[in-house]
Design brief:
Helix content: 25-40%
Strand order of the largest sheet: 1-3-4-5-9
Mean pLDDT: 93
CATH topology of the largest domain: Helicase, Ruva Protein, domain 3
DNA sequence: AGCTCAACCTGGCTGC
DNA sequence: TGCAGCCAGGTTGAGC
């Protein structure tokens, strides 16, 4: 579920409830995530005030006085704002109380993570997991000609498919498996094409497509924001209407050709063999 | 350095 | 109805 748009929408949804608030209690129901939740996290965070929540790629960064809590939603993670009186549900792995407001991290598959970066370790950019990330799709480094240049130059000599190249997030972050297929369809590029063989004009189309697809998804998520953060049932689906993703065998919405599904780098890719050359 | 692949974990769906 | 097998939004780390 969480690609960049979902993480961004989550950030926008929870920030008003958390920013400027002081953590009063932290309960770890099950801290066996991708990496174990630091055993002393409660001790570290209690009585600290969260000044801001930022997003870097698919990571959420909670800024506290003495450091930054780094949270990743993994495949199935969802954050919800609830009253502390509400009963925590199954798979609520960890909850942060800010007065009578609870921020609950729900994550069935435990691929998420919650880590701590103490201020003594320097700027958050030094955090190992963030260090190798590509640029933000909406920041200056990727806008205008910059995005095209980056995608083109960094791909020279690369033999991996453009699908895997984009998905890896080493050039631009935030494009997950769904929006990767969607962006390549938007740019009319065949996902199997080796990244190093794609011309500059085509990378220009791709850079624009990535921004468009992600922006649209954020807008779609934004509309269901309220439901999302207040829900204590299943999270609202942001899934925007996809043109190709999860549409194997169905007619392409532009030309009617059946959409193909293939596997690349252990992940499914969907594309239109007619529209994407 | 870049490529491929196993691994982390749980639930839901498909097909026998 | 039951159960085995496969698939799922992400990412690291090992081995070549």
């Amino acid at each position: 579920m969480p690609e960049l748009p979902e993480v961004e929408v989550t950030k926008l949804g929870i920030a008003p409830y958390i920013e400027g608030k002081t953590l009063t209690e932290l309960i770890v129901h099950d801290g066996r995530f991708r990496w174990p939740v630091p055993s002393n996290l409660k001790k570290i965070l209690i009585d600290q005030t969260c000044s801001a929540i930022h997003r870097r790629g698919k990571y959420l960064l909670f800024y506290f006085e003495r450091g930054v809590m780094v949270l990743h939603l993994g495949m199935t993670g969802v954050l919800r704002i609830q009253k502390i009186q509400e009963e925590p549900k199954k798979y609520n792995r960890i909850e942060f109380h800010f007065g009578d407001t609870a921020l609950r991290f729900h994550d069935p598959r435990k691929f998420g993570s919650v880590l701590w970066h103490p201020i003594e370790h320097g700027p958050i950019e030094n955090f190992p997991l963030l260090k190798k990330l590509g640029v933000e799709p909406f920041e200056n480094e990727f806008s205008g000609v910059n995005g095209t240049k980056l995608l083109y130059e960094r791909s020279r000599g690369r033999t991996v498919s453009v699908k895997q190249y984009l998905l890896a997030g080493q050039v631009v972050v935030g494009v997950g498996n769904i929006y990767c297929s969607e962006s390549l369809f938007e740019a009319k590029i065949n996902p199997k094409t080796p990244a190093g063989k794609i011309s500059k004009p085509r990378y220009e189309r791709l850079a624009k497509a990535v921004q468009l697809i992600l922006k649209k998804a954020i807008q779609a998520g934004g509309s269901s924001l309220k439901d999302f953060v207040h829900s204590d049932g299943e999270p609202g689906h942001f899934m925007v209407l996809t043109k190709v993703y999860d549409r194997a065998g169905l007619p392409c919405k532009e030309c009617g050709t059946p959409i193909k599904q293939i596997t690349q780098g252990q992940r499914s890719t969907y594309y239109c063999p007619q529209c994407q050359k």
